[in-house]
């Protein structure tokens, strides 16, 4: 609520509130946004296992307990208190149905057309984008440009240097740091959920209960030693969560595994072509995959001889396929600064470039819901109206219609 309110207020008024000290004094969310998760939890209990239990889900936003705020963690925990959901047919259904809505309203969605730059007119206003079509560039013009490429891609890669130097953009960039890089393993299996003993749940596996200590030891290691020190892996079985999976792919299953990895461990190969980065890169990647899979086999021993496909992905993989600037899973780091009032006020959809707006998780917080709230705030900024009020009225009308049908 505070996050949305500060971004909706005029920048001058929001700035006055920040400088007044009233938010820190009277709004618990703002006060706790200045304290680390570890600091608060350590003050609640001396039990190391309980501390770990209270903090274990931090990889969902990608920042260590000592470096993120208690408010950030509280947002996530509150989000999951009523349970979670999984889209029937998999995550691709989200894009599939969204694209239909865009096209019905006269828009379009282009695949394999990466944006190369944001176009500015002679007065410095955003007026279009230049996209790649094969080896050619095609300019597409529009009165409003909305970027969900993230703050780093939008400002540092897509905008020309003169726009990047604008004071408002520089003030936003000063508040932003890159999140931690990620390593992924995707596994295809021959066998059904029942045959392999797979579960529709998420596992967070740790080597110890001092989460900061084991993670810092790993992230400060050399790339040669890192694979032996992997302290955490996240394991999930997407096929076991999807009620339509067995109908579409009988006798097959999937597992996805994630952990952290430093971009710098793999940076040497950043300019090499994907899938052609050489034996040293593949050997390093395999070292991570082998250690990770040994942990997975302990959890799901029946899968060891049923693997039909396995693929490891480094921060460079993320950089190539999802255009994350440093191979991070979640864009901007969710450090203590991220949810402080000044940052919330500064990082808003409006930019110093007229007609250019930011949307997505970097204007809110990570994840599907965070990106959606970023979209609501961006739409409100473009349309100059409070979208949340529209949503409240829509919910009331929907609830009333449901009630009428029941009667």
Automatic annotation (TrEMBL):
This protein's record includes keyword Lipid metabolism: yes
InterPro entries (alphabetical): Amino_oxidase, FAD/NAD-bd_sf, Retinol_saturase
The cellular location(s) given in this protein's UniProt record come to: Endoplasmic reticulum membrane
Per UniProt, which keywords does this protein have? Endoplasmic reticulum, FAD, Flavoprotein, Lipid metabolism, Membrane, NAD, NADP, Oxidoreductase, Signal
What does the record give as cofactor?
A: FAD; NAD(+); NADP(+)
Output the Pfam families linked to this UniProt entry.
Amino_oxidase
Its membrane topology is listed as:
Peripheral membrane protein
> Is NAD one of the keywords UniProt gives this record?
yes
Q: What is its EC number?
A: 1.3.99.23
Q: Which reaction does it catalyse?
A: all-trans-13,14-dihydroretinol + A = all-trans-retinol + AH2
Which top EC class is given? oxidoreductase
Kindly list the GO CC terms recorded for this protein.
endoplasmic reticulum membrane
GO molecular function terms listed in the Swiss-Prot or TrEMBL record: all-trans-retinol 13,14-reductase activity
Task: Domain (Amine oxidase): give its ranges.
Answer: 40-377
Q: Can you tell me which family this protein belongs to?
A: Belongs to the carotenoid/retinoid oxidoreductase family. CrtISO subfamily.
PANTHER family of this UniProt entry?
Answer: ALL-TRANS-RETINOL 13,14-REDUCTASE, BLR7054 PROTEIN
The molecule here is called All-trans-retinol 13,14-reductase
Q: Which species is this record about?
A: Columba livia
């Amino acid at each position: 609520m505070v996050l949305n309110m500060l971004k909706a207020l005029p920048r001058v008024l929001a700035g006055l509130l920040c400088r007044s000290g009233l938010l820190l004094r009277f709004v618990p969310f703002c006060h706790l946004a200045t304290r680390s998760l570890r600091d608060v939890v350590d003050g609640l209990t001396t039990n190391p296992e309980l501390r770990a239990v209270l903090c274990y889900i931090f990889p969902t936003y990608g920042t260590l307990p000592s470096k993120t705020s208690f408010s950030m963690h509280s947002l996530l925990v509150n989000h999951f208190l009523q349970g979670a959901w999984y889209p029937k047919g998999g995550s691709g259904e989200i894009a599939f149905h969204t694209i239909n809505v865009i096209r019905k309203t006269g828009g379009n969605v282009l695949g394999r057309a990466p944006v190369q730059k944001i176009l500015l007119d002679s007065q410095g206003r955003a007026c279009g984008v230049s996209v790649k079509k094969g080896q050619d560039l095609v300019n597409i013009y529009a009165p409003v440009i909305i970027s969900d490429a993230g703050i780093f891609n939008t400002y540092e890669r897509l905008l020309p240097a003169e726009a990047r130097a604008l004071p408002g953009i520089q003030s936003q960039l000063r508040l932003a740091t890159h999140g931690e890089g990620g390593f992924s393993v995707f596994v295809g299996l021959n066998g059904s959920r029942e045959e392999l003993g797979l579960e529709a749940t998420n596992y967070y596996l740790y080597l110890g209960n001092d989460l900061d200590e084991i993670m810092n030891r790993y992230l400060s290691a050399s790339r040669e030693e890192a694979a032996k020190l992997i302290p955490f892996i996240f394991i999930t079985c997407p096929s076991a969560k999807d009620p339509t999976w067995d109908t579409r792919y009988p006798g097959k299953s999937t597992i996805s595994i994630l952990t952290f990895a430093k971009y710098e461990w793999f940076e040497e190969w950043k300019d090499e072509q994907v899938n052609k980065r050489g034996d040293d890169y593949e050997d390093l990647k395999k070292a991570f995959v082998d250690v990770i899979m040994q942990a997975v086999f302990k959890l799901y021993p029946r899968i060891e001889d049923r693997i039909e496909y396995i693929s490891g992905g480094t921060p460079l993989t993320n950089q190539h396929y999802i255009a994350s600037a440093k191979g991070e899973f979640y864009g901007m780091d969710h450090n203590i600064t991220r949810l402080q009032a000044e940052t919330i006020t500064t990082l808003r959809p409006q930019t110093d470039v007229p007609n250019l707006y930011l949307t997505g998780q970097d204007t809110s917080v990570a994840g599907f819901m965070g990106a959606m709230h970023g979209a609501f705030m961006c739409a409100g900024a473009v349309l100059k109206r409070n979208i949340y009020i529209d949503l409240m009225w829509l919910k009331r009308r929907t609830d009333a219609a449901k009630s009428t049908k029941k009667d």
